[in-house]
Design goal:
With 250 residues, the protein is α+β, with helices and mostly antiparallel strands. The chain is built from eight helices and 14 strands. The chain has a seven-stranded antiparallel beta sheet, with no helix packed on it. The protein has a seven-stranded antiparallel beta sheet with strand order 11-10-14-8-9-13-12. The radius of gyration is 22 Å and the shape is globular. The termini are far apart. This is Riboflavin synthase.
Amino acid sequence: MGQVRQLGFDESGESFDMIIHSPTVLEDVNLGDSIAVNGTCLTVTEFDPQRLEFKVGLAPETLRKTSLIELEQGSVVNLERAVKPSTRMGGHFVQGHVDGTGEIVSMEPEGDSLWIKVKTSPEILKFIVPKGFIAVDGTSLTVVKVFDEEECFNFMLVEYTQQKVVIPLKKVGQKAQELIVGSENHIAMKSSKSSEPNSLSFLSKAFNNLLRKITSQRVLIPRLHDLLEADDLADLVSHLESRRHWSEEI
């Protein structure tokens, strides 16, 4: 974790910057590197290894989408460097692109663990499912339960996690920023809304056949490129349906 030393507009009044003190994340850091601050991916614009400080800039869209604007001098923040592909991949993949914010509505201890309940917007809640993944203030967590009528979801923090992240330091009523991590959450939602029940079975068959072709190195690259151009599951199903004549052959 780190501590905010300075936050606000610079002398020109055009750039909103934040200076953070941290003894742990500046090893081999370079200008332009990404450091996640409370889960928000930010770019290092300056750093001072002697003072153990680094500066990041916050764009207007970042201030609108996140809760970073609520930080102040002395606030403690979660910090995380980008993962290296050579390290052990523990936990969930987090990109640092925040989907929105929510409000902490309850914090209840159970033994040495802590239940946290967060209220969020319907636009975000529809992609959250029990046992799905979500990052809250940069901490990747497993959703325990979703309360649709209350527009809430909850999760539990074990004692060790409580000592390493900022969520337990917050109070009921404060904002927390959210990043939907599990891509399977999105796929499940889109699949459940499909108006063609046979499309998914056809999609599965087409993918299996396509993968078999890829592994045998006999797939036609232009056709593979066409598949990868599809924007989402619905477009992909439609695209495959329109090319059923060749997909049934591969």
